[in-house]
Each structure stands twice: as structure tokens, then as C-alpha cells.
Amino acid sequence: MQFRAAVLRAPRTPLAIETIEAVDLQPDDVLVRIAAAGLCHTDLEVIEGQLAYPMPIVLGHETAGVIEEIGSAVAPGRCGERVVLSWNPHCGHCFHCERGQPILCETYVGHGPQAVQFDGTTRLRLGGAPLRTMFYIAGFAEYAIVTDACAIALPADMPLDRACLIGCGVMTGVGAAINVAKLGYGDTVMVIGCGAVGLSAVQGARLAGATTILAVDRNRERLALAQQVGATHAATVPDDDALALAGKLTSGRGVDCVLESAGNGAAFRLSAEACRAGGQIVWLGKAGVNDDVAFRWGSLMGEKRIVRSSYGGARPARDFPRLARAYLDGKLQLDPYVTRRLRLEEINRGFDDLKAGRGIRSVIQFSRRSASLTS
Ligand SMILES: [Zn+2]
Ligand SMILES: [Zn+2]
Question: Could you tell me if residue 261 is left (phi over 0), alpha (psi between -120 and 50 degrees) or otherwise beta?
Fold first, then answer.
């Protein structure tokens, strides 16, 4: 079959809309007609060349759609299911899977950088040559072929243009608060960086019962949004002294937990300074893998627990339906995240916005009519 996709042929070049081909489904595969895909910062890192992947490649890993075809080993009832896609397929029985850390699954970590499927091959072709698949999904396309276990069914009334956000940014932020930090009632929390992940960390903290949630960002609009979704206090950097405010709110002790999602040295340093002795720090943001980040050593003392998390401790089959339920029950706000809706042809404009820090999330919306199946 053939369909359209946004293809990246080389770093620092625009994505090009191309007609690509997919091979037949393997027994555990499902074919998902993509309805919506969010533009995440990790996609931008590949475009900018900070994250090296073989090319040509189809990016996109924050994705929701409808299962249209299934492989021979997939339960027949899955056709027609509305799904959000997980980017963490895992074997379930390797060293790390057995220790409850599927994000470190040996096959997942081994094949991910090659941008192939879990079985080490790619299902996509461009001009007859193999086409790589980012994060086991390749969501910037009219269709995706993923392994059955990565297509997580949603309640039928969940709108797919917001469901897609659950697949990466929302899972990472809410999961950091609930799965990783395991926040509890009355906790004091600082969230640094209020993009999609940080806003979700704010909401995760609120859902867990945190009663003081201090949001920190450079951008006042983002802080206003953070307060709309649950932050009790806000500090604009560099104008406000976020560290002093954290002290003032906690009798000088520092906050119980810092959820960091800005990804720069100043943010990492603030996270360590603002955390109380015995508290915990969850780093969600990223510096360049070869960058050094400096800390005042004393800020790391005091039995602080520091965790770096890339998917918020996600167990997608458990967590995605919960997050969708929370949205449908009015407990998790997702509507304000979608600051721009684009057609696939407009995808480069969405990345321009992301690079410039405009808006929260651009979402590609695929109309059913635009899909041109030729087989
Ligand atoms: Zn992402
Ligand atoms: Zn494994």
C-alpha cells in the first residue's frame, strides 16, 4: 500500500511530503490510520541534528488513530479500535524488563537508534529503499504500522486530536509526578518549564494531591496556563527569585519535589537548589548528551534523590486509558495544549513555532479524505 508521509532526508533540511510504501503486516502488527500527531521537542532534536538517526526517516511519536488492519496473530476484535500509540515496545523478559523498567528493555534500546521496528526491520519503503521509523511509530504519515502491544485502546468518546498528546508529553509529565515521584497529599512541588511536559507535571502533581505547586518559566503566558491547570504559584525567570519563593512557601526548607522539564543548565541547578533535604528531583528535560552541567556540590547534599526519566515511568497499557479517562472526567485538561492545528503539508511551520518557543503543541490533523490508498 502507498500513503503520504513527511520524510526527513538529512538534518537541518525541511521535511518533504512524499508518497511512501509499506510492506505486508507481520503477524503481531497492526495498521493504524493516523488521525492526529503532536510535534514534540524530540522530533525537533532529530531535525536539528542533535539526536543522530539514520536517514531517510519518518519522525512523529505522539500519535493517535484507528486500527484498520491487523496481523494474523492479533485479536480479531481490535479492528476499528481507537488507539494512542506507545513509543516503548518492550520484550517483557530481558534483564531490565524483569526489573520493571521497560524503558530500558534491551531490544528497545538496541533497535531504537537504528530507527527500525522491534524485530530489527522496517515496514516502510521510499522509492524501493528502506525508510527508517522514529521511535517505532513514524507518526507523521497517514498510516503507521506498529506492534499490537503499542496500540493502546481508548474510550470510544476520547477525541483523537487530544488523545495523541497522551502518547508522549502528557504521559511523561503526569507520570513523573505520579509514577516516578509518587507524590502525595499536601506535598510541595516546583515544576520548572511549562511546555506540554511541564504543564502535565503540574496536573500530575495536582491529581496526586500536592497542595503547593510552584510553576517556573521564562514565559508569562505559559505560567498563566500553568496556573489555569493547577499551579498555585508562579515565578518568571529571570525576573523573580524562584528559589527564594520556594523557600518562603516551605518555611525555608525547600520543596518536597522538583519536576524539571526545561532542559538547560540553569534549570538543572535550580532543581537541586530548590529541593529540600531528603526530597526528590525528577529530571525530564535534556541537555546535549556530550554537554557538561555544573552544580554547586552542596546543592546535591542532604540525601536528595535524583532521577532522570524519559517517559514518566510509563506503563502505557495501564496509564493511557487512565489519562484518557481523567480527560473525559474533566480532571486532566488537554484542550489548552493544542495551540495550532496543521495539515501534514504545513508541518515545517509547526516546527518553526516549536523552535521559536511559540505556543504549546502543534498537532497535525489528518482528514480521512486526504488518505489515498492505492492497494
Ligand atoms: Zn516526545
Ligand atoms: Zn525487555
Answer: alpha
What is the distance in A from the centroid of ligand 1 to the CA of 42?
5
User: How many C-beta atoms surround the C-beta of residue 19 within 10 A?
Assistant: 14
Q: What mean pLDDT is reported for the chain?
A: 96
- Least confident among 20-29, 162-171, 265-274, 362-371: 362-371
Helix (H) / strand (E) containing 354: helix 347-356
- How is 255-323 classified by DSSP, letter by letter? EEEEEE-S-SHHHHHHHHHHEEEEEEEEE-S---TT------GGGG-SS-EEEE-SSTT--HHHHHHHH
In this predicted structure, the answer to whether residue 372 has a pLDDT above a threshold of 50 is no
What separation in Å is there between the alpha carbon of 168 and the centre of ligand 2? Answer: 20
Dump pLDDT digits (tens) for 343-366: 999 999 999 999 999 999 999 999
| Cβ-based neighbour number of residue 200 at 10 Å | 34
CA of 96 to the centre of ligand 2 (A): 6
Rounded-to-integer distance, Cα 13 and Cα 36, Å = 23
**214 C-alpha to ligand 2 centroid (Å):** 37
Ligand nearest to the CA of 62: 1
Q: What's the 374 CA to ligand 1 centre distance in angstroms?
A: 31
pLDDT tens for 227-256 read: 999 999 999 999 999 999 999 999 999 999
Burial class (CB in 10 A: 0-12, 13-18, 19+), 107: middle
> Which amino acid is it at 330?
G
User: How many Å lie between the centroid of ligand 1 and the Cα of residue 248?
Assistant: 34
Is 375's pLDDT higher than 90? no
Q: How many Å separate Cα 203 from the centre of its chain?
A: 15
Q: How far is the CA of 136 from the centre of ligand 2 (A)?
A: 15
- What is the residue type of 152? I
Structural domains present in the chain: 2-153+334-370 (3.90.180.10), 173-308 (3.40.50.720)
Length of the chain, please? Answer: 375
